[in-house]
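On to our target:
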Amino acid sequence: MELTAEFIEAENKELTRQYKKLLRISYQTLTDEDKKMIRKAFEVAVDAHKSQRRKSGEAYIFHPLAVAQIVASEIGLDATSIASALLHDVVEDTEYTLADLEQMFGETVARIVDGLTKISSLKKDRDVSLQAENFRKMLLTINDDPRVIIIKIADRLHNMQTMDAMRADKQSKIASETLYIYAPLAHRMGLYNIKTELEDLSLKYTEPDVYKDIASKITESKAQQDQYIKDFKKVIEDSLDEEGLNYEIKGRPKSIYSIRRKILAQGVTFEEVYDKFAIRIIYKSDKANEKFLAWKIYSIVTDHFRPNPTRLRDWISSPKSTGYEALHITVMGLKGRWVEVQIRSDRMNEIAEKGYAAHYKYKEGTEGESSLDEWINRLQEALENPDQNAVDFVENFKLNLYNKEIFVFTPQGDLKSLPKGATPLDFAFSVHTEVGLHTRGSRVNGKLVPLSHTLKSGDQVEIITSESAQPTNNWLDYATTARARAKIKSSLKDEKKELADDGKAILSRKLKSQKIPLNEKTINELVSYFKLNTSLDLFYRVGNGTIDNKMIKEFAAQRSNALMSFIKSKIRKPNTPPDVHKDEITNNFDSLVFGPEDQKLDYTFAKCCSPIPGDPVFGFTTIKDGIKVHKNNCPNAIAMRSNYAYRIIKAKWVDSSDTGYQTDIILTGIDNLGLVNTVTAEISNHLNVDIKGLSFTTQGGIFKGKITVVVRNNALLKTLIENLKKIDGIDQVTRV
C-alpha cells in the first residue's frame, strides 16, 4: 500500500473522528479530568505506534482506539479503563516502559497495562500445555483487577472483527481459542452481547459454510419475524397500556452459534428450530417496584398466551451468579408457536448487556459483595494451587465458566447457587472447606442420599460430618466444582505424604537390618530397581505395604552380590532420572477398574482403537469375548453407546498400588459383651482398610462373623488377620 500525502491526511482525519466518537459514546459520564487523561493516553499511543501498521495495511493505532471504544460503550467501563485500553499494547510493542506509564498515568493504569502485557500473544507453534500456561497467567490476573480480563476480552473481540487479512490456519486457531476460553469468560463476566458476538465470529472462521448458510437464512426470515413480533405486540399492548406501564417490546434473534448448537443437539433443520428468536419486554421502574411490575407483566402476558409451566425461569428472586436478573417465560404464541418472553426492567437490561460495569453503577449504597467479587474470591483459592499443572488449571477454571446454575437451600433456609450437575459433596465444600473434608454423608429433603447424588433446584441439603471422615480417591468421581476438586486433590496429596513419611522410617529400619545405609545412592538404586519415578513414590509404596519386607530383602540380596552387580552395571548402567527427588507421588495408570464400585474384572483391549494406559476408556460387554475396552473417542463408540447402552460399563485407570481388593474374613470365637465393637474398631484402626459388609450370629455362646473388607495388598491383610487373632474371645480368623 502506497502511503501518499492524501492517504495520510485522510487517515489522520479518520483518526480524529474516531477519537471524538470515543468521548461521545462513553457509557459513563466523563469529567474534565477524565477527558484530559484519555487525551494524554491517546497522544502517547499515537506516538508509540506511529511507525506500525496492521496486516490489513491500516495504521496500528486504530486497533487500541477500537478496543477503547468497545470498553467505553459496549462494556461501559470508566476513564481509567479507557486510558488503559488505549495503552494496552504500548509496553509490549514499543519503546515505552511500564515505569514511563506509571509516571505519566499513575499506579492503577500501569498495573492494568502490566497485567495485559503479561498475557502475551500466543505463538502459533506453541503446544497445548504452553498455551494452557499462557491462559493460566491471564486467569490469575483476575485477582489483581478484573478490568485486565475485561479489556483483554475487548481486545479479542476487535481482533476477531478484523481477522479477514490473516491466513486461514491462523484464523481457525484464534477462533478455536476464542471459543475455548474467551467466550466463556465473557459469559461469566455477564457480557452476554459480547459473548454472542465472539461465538458467532468464531463459527464464521471455524465453519465458514455453516455460518454463511445460517446467516443467510436468518436474513431471509427477518421480515417474517418482525411481522410476528408486531402481531404479538398488538395482542398485549392494550392491556399493558391500561396498567400505565412505560415499556418497549423488542425481538431478539437467537445467535447463529446457538442455532447451530441446537441443530446439532436435536438433529433438526434450521426451519425446525422453533425458538429462533425471543421477545423482550423492557419496562421503566424504580428499584422499589421492579419485582412487583415484572410479575404484573407476567400476569398480563399469561392472560393472553398459555405458558409452558416447566419453562418458567425466575432470576429476579434469585439472580444468577453472573449478576443477571430477568423473568423468562415460554408461552404458546400466535400460529401455535412456542415463544420465549423475557421480562426485564431497564436496570436489569443494562446489567445483562454491560455486566460488571452496570453492576457497579447500581451498586452504590447496597451492602455486601457483588456476585462477581464473590466469584473472584471463590476462584482465588481454587485456582492458586501451585501443584496443579496448567492444563488441569484451565479445565478446572472452565468448570466455573459456562455452567448453568441450580439453587439449593441450607438446613437454615439460606439459598446457595451451584453449577448444574452438582452433588452434596460440592455443596459441602461451598459451605466451608472443613465441612467438605469431614463429610460423612448427606440428607437431601430429609432423606439419606449417596455423595454422588445429583442435586436439583429447590433441594434442601444437610451435610453429616464426622471428625474421622476424610477424602478418598472416589470423591473425585463425585465432585464437579473446581473448588471441591482442588481441595480433595490437595487433601489426598497430604494424606499420601504422611504415609510416605511413615514409609521412609520403615524403609530406614528395614535397610538398617540389612546393613544398608539409607542415602541418596541407595534411594536412586531402589527407585530404579522398583521401576518408580520419584523417591516419594518409593516411600509411599513402602508405607502402604505395596513394597513389603520380602521385596526389600530381594533388593538387598541382589545388591550384595557384588559380582552380579558389577556385570549388571557393565551391561546396563542404572538410569537415574534427574527428578527422582521431586516432591510428588505419581500415578502408575497400570490397572483398570470397572463400574461404580471400581471392580477388578477380566478384560481385553479392542483392536479398533488400541487404548493405552491413561486414555479415557469404557468397557463393552461382548457376547463371546467378555469385556472389551475401547477409547472414548473410538470410531465405533457412538454406535455402541446408542445401540447397546445397557452393555457399556464405566472404566477408569488407577494405580494398582492404590487399588483396593475385596476379600471375606470368617471369625469364630466365644461370644462376649462388646466383641463386635472391638472387632470393628480394630479394622477401622487400620489405615487403607475399608469394611464393605459384615454379619454376626451367636448361638449357644458361640460367636461367628463374616466381614467383607477392601485392602490394598496381601501384606496389609496378613497384618489385619494377625491383629484380629489377638482379640480376647476370638478363636479362629480365616480368609475365605
